[in-house]
Fold Selenoprotein F.
Amino acid sequence: MPIPVRQCSIGREREREMGRLLIHALFLLAVPLISIAEQLSSKECENLGFTGLALCSDCNTFAEYVKNQELVSDCLKCCTEDSDDSMSKIIYSGAVLEVCMRKLVFYPEIVGFIEEEKEKFPSVKVQYVFNSPPKLIMLDDDGQYKETIRVDNWKREHILQFLKEKVKPTSSAI
């Protein structure tokens, strides 16, 4: 009769483990649902150190390495839902290229874009802000800030390609 007792203890142990796995799985499913309801503005995300370009799957990977639940929660509040076309569907009505005039000497690609390419994008304005790293602030139809993207390491052709894909073309016909 010791064999059935042993099988029962193994069965209880397996049952407990399955219960823990189920709770863990439910938590992983619930966190993204909570984060969708609590999305933060792009300014709030930027202040937290997130650009809004992270996919929610990146936050889940991040959670595997970082045990700070508040940080993971902030990431999930600032991420973009994963899908094949999630980023390609977003189109903005304009942008502001924000940069510090004193630091431009360190960013020849940005200078090249401003001097030689910027006129191709009438809905993109250059704004000089003291001590600001180069960034594109994407605008919605109402001119409100929607997303901020650091471009300090981008090449001119990357800026051109990004703006061609992400900013609505303006009609030049009068």
